[in-house]
Amino acid sequence: MKQAENIKLSSGKLKFAFRIARRYLFSKKSHNAINVISGISSVGVAVGTMALVFVLSIFNGFELLFADLFSAFDPELKITMNEGKQFSVNSSEFNKIRENKAVAVFTEVIEENALLKFKEKQMPAMIKGVSEDFKQMTLIDSIMFDGEFILFDGAFERSVAGAGIAATLGLGAHFIDPLYIYAPKRTSRINLLRPEQSFNQSATFLSGIFSVQQSEYDNQYVLVSLNLARELFEYGDTEVSAVELKLTPNADGKKIQKEIKQILGDGFSVKNRYEQQESYFKIMKIEKWITFLILSFILLIASFNIIGSLSMLIIDKKEDIITLRNLGADNQLIKQIFLLEGWMISLVGAVAGVVLGTCFSLLQEKIGFIKLGAGFIVENYPSVTQFSDVFLVLITVLVIGFIAAWYPVRYIKPDINKTA
């Protein structure tokens, strides 16, 4: 009973403190400067909060944009060896994966470094040999910059190069001059007298140029048929360096990834799209949260106005404090009143900033009123509003507001005279 009475009494004190704080917030002060500083404080908090919400939404938009670009080339799941390079897919484990109902496309892949030569120009590149179903596994057709995706036309070996490689070598789709690929022989020693005999050589004709808008692909990759890659790099008929999978539309990616890991054991790595570009997305996350911290620090500086306005209000309401003490209010209740007053200034700004920031983010997402300009991947800044970010911003602003309100309130001393 006594505990219940104490809770009821504490609740009553808090309600009383809130009513007084609300009255102080919206009533006209004896010194107009306090009203002005309080208004500036709320506006500063609102602007900082709006900026936080909007900037985080822009970072989310860029993350989704680059994820879409990578998904046009990267598989949903990629299997490689943890140690070593090549492995055979002629095994019961890989047969189980092929027969899995959740696996829509099973693509065998060989990736190795080689030397490219076109006329008098040369450059190193990553040769990616893929089987015929690579087109069904990726969105390669959507990123074709020139020509079309053909790796074998029935008579000649064809290749598809990244836009950066094509620009460096001066390549164009359907050029009549061949693109030569040189790969070092794995089963013979280097011939110093005739070094050309130390390389396997193949000529291909460029059928198309793709553009992922990412340099690690556009400036490095050339796609060829799996048979040509096996000949160049001396792989066996069932040997590959990777297996790439596309899942059915309703498949649970995480569950299938876990199942494949259990089938293959510790010797193999099974990565989803995020894990394949883990370092890239980690950098984006770090940039996002560093920006969040910088803007939060700016918001903290803007909240110093709350300290000033609340300090002036405490001085302005000194007679009211004496009156409340004469009526029986203790020091804790007095502090609660002014703490709530300062926090409400932050709350008004935080709510206004969250609403404005969310509205701007949604408008940017739907309309795109802020432009990137010419020469970029997209015309407008991409924006994706995540309400988890909005909630985090709101909590951050309220914590900063509480700290800003607590600082001057803690100097209210209990030894103020109880008589006017």
The low-confidence parts are 4-9, 416-420
Mean pLDDT: 84
What's the total number of strands?
Answer: 12
Number of helices: 14
* Content of β-strand: 15-25%
Termini separation: 38 Å
Shape: elongated
Structural class: alpha+beta
Order of helices and strands: HHEEHEEHEEHEEHEHEEHEHHHHHH
* Arrangement of strands in the largest sheet: 3-4-9-6-8-7
Radius of gyration: 33 Å
Relative helix content: 40-55%
Q: In this structure, how is the largest beta sheet organized?
A: 6 strands, mixed, barrel
Overall structural domain count: 2
Describe this structure in words.
This protein is of the alpha+beta class. It folds into two domains: 186 residues, no CATH class; 202 residues, no CATH class. Helices cover 52% and strands 19% of the residues. The protein has 14 helices and twelve strands. The strands form two sheets. The chain has a six-stranded mixed barrel. Strands 2-10 form a two-stranded antiparallel sheet. Strand 3 and strand 4 form a beta hairpin. The two termini are 38 Å apart. The C terminus is likely disordered.
List key phrases describing it.
six-stranded mixed beta barrel; 2 domains; about 425 residues; 14 helices; alpha+beta; disordered C terminus; two-stranded antiparallel ribbon
Q: TL;DR of this structure?
A:
This protein is an alpha+beta fold.
Write the layout of secondary structure elements.
Elements: H1 2-26, H2 32-71, E1 77-81, E2 87-88, H3 92-99, E3 103-118, E4 121-130, H4 134-137, E5 144-147, E6 158-162, H5 163-169, E7 179-184, E8 199-210, H6 215-218, E9 221-225, H7 226-233, E10 239-240, E11 242-247, H8 253-264, E12 268-272, H9 273-276, H10 278-302, H11 304-316, H12 318-326, H13 331-366, H14 387-409
Parallel strand pairs: 4-9, 6-8
Antiparallel strand pairs: 1-11, 1-12, 2-10, 3-4, 3-7, 3-11, 5-8, 6-9, 7-8
Helix pairs in contact: 1-13, 2-10, 2-11, 2-13, 2-14, 11-13, 11-14, 13-14
